[in-house]
Structure formats: C-alpha cells, structure tokens
Design brief:
Blueprint (H helix, E strand, L loop, with lengths): L2 H17 L12 E8 L10 H14 L8 E8 L4 H14 L4 E3 L4 H13 L4 E4 L5 H4 L7 E3 L4 H15 L4 E7 L2 H14 L4 E8 L7 H8 L5 E5 L2 H13 L5 E4 L6 H11 L8 E4 L7 H4 L3 H13 L8 H19 L6 H8 L3 E2 L11 E2 L10 E8 L2 E10 L3
Parallel strand pairs: 1-2, 1-3, 3-4, 4-5, 6-7, 6-8, 8-9
Antiparallel strand pairs: 10-13, 11-12, 13-14
Helix pairs in contact: 2-12, 2-13, 3-4, 6-7, 9-10, 13-14
Length: 403
C-alpha cells in the first residue's frame, strides 16, 4: 500500500468519525422531549385517570409558553386498567418501542413496584410515581432511578395516630386497610403515631378484587370501635362509609388522602344523609380547587382553572386528581429545566434528587418540594383536613410527614 493511499484512507476514516452523529438520548430531539406514563383509563379505578389529564394540560400550557429550553414536552400515556401485569407490558412498550426519555407519575403503588426493577435495570428515570410506599425511603440504593411524588403513606398514618392520641386518647379504633404496601404502611404509621395512646381494637384487610366489604365491616362493627380508619381506594371508601351506615354503625371516620375527592365524599354523603361523612378527618397537600370560597382568589387556583379551561375543557376542575396531576407536572418541568439545555437521563435523575422547589402554585402555601440523593420523598408536609357540611376545610398548621 502506497503512502499516498494510506494518507487518503486515514483522511476518510477521520471524516467519517467527525461526521457521525453523537450518541443520542432516547426521547430527546432538538424540538421535543418524550415522556411516558401509565394510567387506568379502564378498569376499577378510572377515577385516577384524571391525573394524566391534569398533567397533560399543564404540559400543553408550558409548550405554548416556550417549552423547556425550546423543546416541547410530548406526554404519551397508555391504559393499564390498574393491573400491574398490564403496567409492565405498557411500560416495556413505551421504553422499547416509543423510546421515551422517562416514565412519569405512573398511577398506583403495585403498578410502580411492578415496573421498578425493569426501569432501573435499563436506567430509565421513574420520576414522581403516584405512590407513597415506604419502600422508596429504604430501597433507593437498589433502585436509584425511582422517585415517588405522594407523601409517605407511613408518615400519613403517623399524623393520624398523633392527632387521635392528642385529641381522643381513649378512642377505640377499627381499621379497614387494603392488603398492599399502601394499606399496610398506613396501618404501621398509625400504630407508631399512637405510641400507646388510644386502642386499635380490630384491624381487617381486604383484597382489591373483592366485590363487597360486607363481612369485613360486620367484623369491625362487632369490635365496638368508635373510630374507623378507612385506608382504602375511592371505590372501597364509598363501600365502607355507606356499608357502615347501613349496619347502623356511626364511628368517627378517617379517610386516606388518596380518596378525599369531592365525588367520593358526595356519593357517601348523599347515600347516608351525611351521617357517615360529617366530621371526617384526612390530610392534604394540595389547594382545594372545589372550595372556591376559600381558594377562588388564589393565583395558583386561578391559573389551574385557566389552564383546564383552555387545554382540557371537558375535565372536571373539582377532581382532586386533576390538580394533583398538574402539581406533579409542574415539578417535572422544574426538574427538566435543572437537567440542562441538553438533558440526559442521568442529568434528569440528578436534578430530580436535588429539588428545592418553593414556588409550586398548586401546593398548599408554605410547602416545599425537596429531595436529596438519600431522601426521595419530595413532599414531606401535610395539613389536617376536616369534612363539614359537604366541604373539606384545612385546619391547624402544616405538619411534618416524614416516614
């Protein structure tokens, strides 16, 4: 081979290398960022599908205001029917076929846990999942790509326990809880918060596949309890409140934060003449867009209504899941901005685990969304909630909700 030919070949190789495209980040182009999600558009918990509508509306609003460093957010969510097996299938489709940049706010604890190993194995951010399971506080080293968005279920239960211990130390407590990490974490937190005050006289679990809760409620009624903790999803919460009333049992109810939607409470209230709902206690971290007497002039709630009116006009603005979805979307956009002008999955994870967000307009005043590499729960404050005459009202100060 002549020297001239060697030089020519070397020049061609260098030109080819120089002209080759750089390694691309899945889901990120010069004009878009593709975000994936799974929600129950069908199945037993379709009430939570609204989470996606609220988030999607906020992303459209952001896109119309310049996007994230000029890139528009494309949010592609698929129906998993609230079935973890389908969640896995749809997640694999979004990652392997659609090449999403990250998975965002997947709805449900069991659904998040079912897809966590796969997403972490492939280094795909599982960002701000719709769960507050305590496992996320302990397993972050094994699953570094996963972050929840809901406050810790264990911490929520602890808040109830402390409140009962302080205000009703002689209470006799019955607990209906879902047989899952969600229900078990709430029960464990309740016990820790009580710290020996009041008495849990009976705790009964149920499976989400059960059609009715008649036997569980009869067992709890027979315990003689005067307080009922309902650690359940919306459908079962309605069944529990209405079912207890039909048994002639009227304990003081506590409702898990995931089931405080006005629709849930209105159904239970109308079917029991208010007997099963009046004075119910829960917690919240969101502004209540259904209570315009309290929040109607708030800038964040006004923004929420204007966004829904333009981008999701058929969606119910009173649905808690709508403003929750919008709050989570705001935090994702915040994380994307801090991930840099040319985000990678690693830079998104870094920004998501170093949040210090003080300006989320949809969260309660004073709340901060804050994370660190060793503290994955963004929201660790809540405010107590009381249901009176058909309306939820916050009371007391923000309280710590750390597991």
């Amino acid at each position: 081979m002549t020297r001239a030919l060697v030089v020519l070949l070397a020049a061609l190789v260098l030109a080819a290398v120089a002209g080759a495209a750089p390694t691309e980040t899945p889901g990120v182009s010069s004009s878009t960022i593709l975000i994936g999600g799974t929600v129950p558009l069908s199945g037993p918990e379709t009430a939570y599908s609204v989470v996606a509508y609220g988030a999607e509306a906020y992303f459209k609003y952001v896109n119309d205001h310049g996007g994230v460093f000029g890139r528009k957010i494309e949010y592609r969510y698929l129906d998993d029917a609230y079935d973890p097996a389908q969640t896995v299938q749809q997640t694999r489709r979004l990652v392997e076929q659609d090449k999403v940049f990250a998975m965002f706010n997947q709805v449900g604890t069991e659904q998040t846990l079912a897809t966590r190993p796969y997403l972490n194995q492939h280094g795909v951010p599982q960002i701000f999942a719709g769960s507050g399971a305590e496992t996320f506080a302990h397993d972050y080293r094994q699953y570094p790509w996963t972050l929840p968005y809901l406050p810790s279920f264990y911490a929520e239960g602890k808040v109830y326990g402390r409140y009962i211990g302080r205000t009703a130390p002689r209470a006799r407590i019955a607990v209906l809880f879902e047989d899952s990490d969600f229900g078990k974490d709430l029960l464990a937190g309740l016990k820790a918060g009580l710290a020996g005050r009041a008495t849990i006289v009976r705790a009964v679990s149920y499976a989400v596949t059960e059609a009715t809760l008649g036997s569980e409620l009869a067992t709890l009624r027979a315990s003689g309890a005067d307080t009922l903790m309902v650690f359940a999803l919306p459908k079962q919460t309605i069944q529990a409140l209405v079912g207890a009333d039909k048994l002639g049992w009227h304990p003081h109810p506590y409702i898990a934060a995931v089931s405080i939607d006005p629709f849930v409470m209105n159904v239970a209230r109308s079917n029991t003449g208010g007997r099963a709902t009046e004075g119910a206690i829960s917690v919240t971290f969101l502004k209540d867009a259904s209570n315009l007497r309290r929040w109607g002039k708030d800038p964040g709630v006004k923004l929420y209504y204007s966004i829904l009116k333009r981008y999701a006009p058929s969606s119910d603005p009173k649905a808690v899941a709508n403003i929750y979805g919008m709050a989570a979307a705001f935090t994702l956009v915040d994380a994307l901005k801090h991930a840099g002008r040319n985000p990678t999955r690693a830079s998104l994870l870094k920004s998501a685990t170093s949040l210090n967000e003080t300006n989320n307009p949809f969260l309660l005043p004073g709340m901060v969304a804050k994370t660190s590499p060793t503290d994955r729960f963004a929201l660790e404050q809540v405010q107590l909630y009381r249901y009176t005459r058909g309306v939820w009202q916050v009371f007391g100060p923000l309280v710590a909700a750390k597991g």
